[in-house]
Amino acid sequence: MPTYEYRCGKCGRRFEKIMTFSEHERKPRPPCPKCSSRKVEQLASAFQAVTGKKT
Hints:
The protein is α+β, with helices and mostly antiparallel strands. It has one helix and three strands.
């Protein structure tokens, strides 16, 4: 499952949320775990792809 990163616009806390693609489509902005604000923005996340071929 993908991990989404967010930053709260009210308190500035950065947090991660693990959600399925369908959960993210239904609820793209989870509340901040510190202040419960819904004023959050999604951040660009780094990812790693694992393949079967050696390069």
